[in-house]
Design a protein that fits this description.
The protein has helices at about 5-25, 30-50, 55-75, 160-170, 230-235, 245-250, 255-260, 270-285, 300-310, 340-355, 360-365, 370, 395-400, 430-440, 440-450, 470-495, 520-525, 535-555, 590-605, and strands spanning about 80, 95-100, 100-105, 105-110, 115-120, 145, 185, 195-200, 205-210, 240, 290-300, 320-325, 340, 380-385, 405-410, 500-505, 575-580, 585. By secondary structure, it is α/β, with parallel strands linked by helices. It has three domains: about 5-75, no CATH class; about 90-405, Rossmann fold (3-Layer(aba) Sandwich); about 410-605, Rossmann fold. The strands form four sheets. Strands 4-5-8-10-9-11-12-15-16-17-18 form an eleven-stranded mixed sheet, with helices on both faces. The radius of gyration is 26 Å and the shape is globular.
Amino acid sequence: MKFKKAFVVFWILFAAVFAVLLELGKNTLFGWLLCAVLFVLFFLLHGKVLSQKKAIVRLLTWVLFTLLLFGTFRISAPPEKQLPAVEGKHPAETQIVTVKEGQLRGVKNEDESVEVFAGIPYAKPPVGELRWKAPQAAEKWDGVRVCDTFAPMSMQTRTSPIMDTLTQLVGFHRFAITPKDNFVGAMSEDSLYLNIWRPANVTENTPVLFFIHGGSLTSGQTFAGEYNGESLAKKGVVVVNCAYRLGVFGYFASPELAHEDENGTTGNYGLLDQIAALRWVHDNIAAFGGDPKNITIAGESAGSSSVNAICVSPLAKGLFKRAIAESSGIAARVPYHTFRTMESAAKMGKQIMEEFGAETIEDLRAVPAEKLVNTQYTNSAMTVDGYSIIEQPFYTYLKKENNEEALLNGFNAHECDVFTFSQKVNSEDYEDAISEVVGSHAADVAALYPPTPQDKAYSLALVEAGGDAKGSFNKVVSAAWFSYSHYVWSNDVANENKDVYLYYFTKDNGSLGSNHAGEMPYAYGNLHRHAKLYDETDFALSETMQQYWVNFAKTGDPNGDGLPTWPRFNDDRTKVLELGATVAPTTLPDQKLFEILDTYQMEKSDE
C-alpha cells in the first residue's frame, strides 16, 4: 500500500481542521466516531484503489468524502438539553413545600448546605392566544411537582455553537476540551418559570434577593453560572431569579394589542412578566422561609434597566424594599438604550407585521415561534405604555414617586469595550464618532479626553479594530451609555434622602476584567466555576462583594464587620467605592463629562 507524502500531509491537516470544527461545534461523540471512521476508510481506500485512478475520479471522491463529513457534522449537532438544578447524580431531596398552586419538592447541593427549587411556574405559558398578553396566573397542579431541573430559556436568536465557543474563547478566555458541554440549552416560548436557592437551615423571615438577568432584553437565561444563587444562599439570603419574554415576544408593540388589553397596554410584556414573578415571590416566598416584607430586587445590564423600570412602575409598589443595579439604567431624561418611545415601538411593530405578511394580530400569533424569533427587527427596549410605565422614568423620580427605599448600584471601568470592538476610531474622525453620544458638544468632550489608543489588556485578540483614538472613544461611550445613568439615578434617590451606595468596578483578571458584566461572578460568588482565570486577590474581592450585597439585602446597608467602609453617596457625591485591586473610596470618574451630558440631555428632551 503506497501513499504519496503530499496526500498524507494533506489528509492529516484536513483531519486536524475537522477535529477543531467538531470541538468548536460541540458535536456529539457519535459525530466524532463517525467522522473518525470516514477518515480511516478514506485513507485505506486511497492507498488501495484511488491512488491508481484518474485525477477526476480522485477529485470526485474527495468531494463525496467532504460532503459525507459535513453531513455527519450536521446530523451530530449538539442536542438541546435542560440543565439539572445541582451538579452530581442523585442529589438529596428537600422537604415538600406548599405554594398557592400546589406542592413541590426541590434538591440539595452536594454538601446539602443549599436547597434549590428550579423550574417553578409563576404564570401560564404565554403561547397561542396568550402570546402578547399580560401574564396570567399559573395553573394549579396535583401531586408533588419535582423541581430539580431548570426550565428552558425564553425564545431568542441562536448563534451557531462554533460562534458561541469562539466568543467564550476570545471574550471570556474560557475553553475546555470535554464531552460534558456537547449540548445547547433548551429553548421554548413556554418559559415563564423561576428558580429559588435557600439556605438549608433557613428560618422564617429570611431576606430575599430577586435577580433579573441581562442580555439586551433579547437574550439570556436563568441557568447561567455567573449568577447562580448558591453562594449567596450560603451567606443567609433566599435568592430567586426568573425568566421573562424576550425580543419580539417580550417587547413587540401594536395599537391593536393595546385596544385588545383591558388596561390598554402593549410593548412591555417582558417587564410585566418580571413584575408577575416578583408578585409571585411576594405572595409565596414565606413558604420557603423568605420574608415578603424584605425583598431586594437586583439586576445587571438590561436586568438593571428592568430594575429601574420596576422602581418606577406603579404595578410593583409594595412588592419590594430595595434595589441593586449593575451597569445600566433608564433614569436619564433620554435613556441611551433599553428604552424607546411608543411611537417608535408601534412603528417597528407594524414593520414586523409586514415582514410576516400578517394583516391582524391573530395572523401574527399563528406564526410559529421558531420562525418569528428570527425577525430582522430588534425589539430591545421598553416603552411608556401608560400602565406598567406611565411616563418617562426621569419624571417619576423628579416627582419622588419611585418605589425603592434604598439603592446599591454602580458601573465598570470598561463597560462598552466589548460592544465597540469592530469600530475603528482614529484622531481625524474621533469627534464625529463621539458626537453620536454627546451631540454638538463633541469638541468640548474631545478636549477632556484627548485621543488615546485602546488599552492592550482590553483589546480583543484578532478582532479589535483599534485606532489611535479608540481608548478615549471607549471611555466616552462607556460613561454615556452606562455610568451616566447610575450618576443620574443615584442623585435622584439621594435627593429623596434615601440611602445610596455607588461603586466603580476596576478589577483586572484573566477573563472579562472590568468589561461589561465583569463584576457578575464576583458579586454572586461564582469565580470557582472558572477558577484558573482568577487568583487569590480575585477570590478575596469576591468575598467582600458578596458580603456587601448580602448585607444590603438584609438591612439596606452594605457595611459590616471586617469590611472596608462603603460611604453613602448622599454624604459626598464626588466619591464612589472602587472595587478593584484595592477596595476604598475614590473620586467619581467622568464628573465633568456628566455635566456636559446633563446639558446635552436637556437639549435632546426639548427636541
